[in-house]
Structures are given as C-alpha cells and as structure tokens.
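Hi R.,

Here's the chain you asked about this morning:
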Amino acid sequence: MNRQKGLILKRENEDCLVLTPDGMFRSVRSSGKAQVGEEIFLSSGAAGFKRILLVAASMCLLAFCCLFYQTNIAQAVTFVSFDFNPSLEIGLNRYKEIVSIKAFDDDAEKMLEKVNIKGQTVDRAVKIIINQARTEGYLVSSSKETLLVAVSPAKEGAAQKVTAEEIAGLANQYLIQNGVEATIITSAASPKNHQEAGEKKISLGRYILLEAAKKEGKEITPQEIKEQKLSDIEAKHGLNLKRTFSNPNSGTKQFVAGDRPVKKQAAEKIKQQYLKKKKSEINKKPDSYAAQQKE
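And the predicted structure, written out as tokens:
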C-alpha cells in the first residue's frame, strides 16, 4: 500500500504543517530531520480512524457478550436444594443448566468434589447427584429414605424454570434405577425464604422445616438444624415431615409427599414432559447454541 507524502510548509521542533497532494493542510508530528520545503511520509488518518472504530466496536461487542453471559448464561434464576443427609443446592440459569453449586456440610462438600455437575443440564445433574449419593452410601436400598427438595426463584416475581414436581419426577426415576425406596417431599418457597436460609447458612429445605416446626410449637436449635440428620430431628421433636410440609400454615406450597415413591410410570411421564419442554427451549436458542446442545 502506497504511503502518502506531504510537503513541509512550517516546522517548530517536532510539530509540522504540511501540504498534501490533494491540497489539504495537515498538522503532524515528525521526529525526523526533514526541514521546510522537504517531503515526509504521512500516517494514514483514515486508517487510524478505522482502527479506532474497530477497537471501539470490539469493546462494545465484548461488553454486550459479557452482559449477555451474565444475564442469560451465568446468572441463576432458580435454586433447588436437596436434603438427604448431606445437604446441597444447585442454581439453574434460564436454560436449566447448572451455574452454581453449594454444599452446606462436609459430607456434601466431599461428595461434590468427586463429580462435575456445573454446566450440566438439570436432568443430568440430578442423575449424577442421586447416583453419587447411592455410591457414597447416603441413599441405600436396605432402608427407607427421605429426600427433601425445595425450589425457589432467584427474584420475586420471576418465573421458575423448573417446578418441584419436575425435580421430584427426575429424582424418583433415578432412585428407582438405583433400587432405592424413598419418600420425596418437595416444597416451593420464595426468594425471601432463600435469602433467610442463606443468612442462617442452611439449605432452603432445612430452613422451611425450621420455620414450619416453629408453627407447630417445636423449637429446633441452630446446631440441630445444621448438623443432625432429618430422621433424628423428626424423631427428637415428634415431627412428621410429610405432615409438617403439608401444613397450610407452613407458608410453603407442597407438591409431592407420599409414603411410597412416585410410581415408575408417573415418574417417567414427568421426566418425558420435562425433556420435551427442554427440547422446545433449546430450539428457541441461537442456532449455534442449539446445535452445540444437540451434538
């Protein structure tokens, strides 16, 4: 590419006034020794301006991508807690993918260190959690287990991307595959409940149990709610988890509570409904993203 030249008309130190071949006057800086009446090469102002525009556009695109990532990909819009001794929580983005994981006790922390669920879809994450809990001996086939599931939106008025019933259906499907008989008790809660549970450093499910027990006149100590097994708390305070969570005064909406697991056919139906809904949402994403999920 040919570089443009300019004739020096005036010079003061490194500041030069030059005349370009197209009859334009330009003020430029030159560290060379050229004097008045001599020609010097000029930098392309247009090219420099284009570079500035390119950098500005790139920064705008980067800012947009970061904002899109924060609001659509990385930000949790729904929280789901699982209590089966241990206790843990997953955060889901608008595409029902895991973007946050939280352990509320040492057992949960050790268990989560052995699996990778961040970035997984919620159905895959629930399967991994149930399978690992079975491997670690937290859910066993020889005794009847209780699985407490609580769901809340991240913000007031926000639509939940999954319901407690969907999570229960997925969990029960994988419990059946592992030969585990369990009572699944689920509850929907508010963002305020989730915030207050975080302040107490307990899971959403245990927080709901704590508040519901208070309404029954049962006082559970902070140490008990944090450290003791659900079955021990239930026995010590004369509670019935199914009844407690069904109590209309508990301030929560219960979806599933039974003495036996959800029937296999019902669980499969719930799971298929969820997968169909998920497929529909993937098809609404940008083509490149949808293609990546289908691979």
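The radius of gyration is 31 Å.

Let me know if you need anything else.
M.
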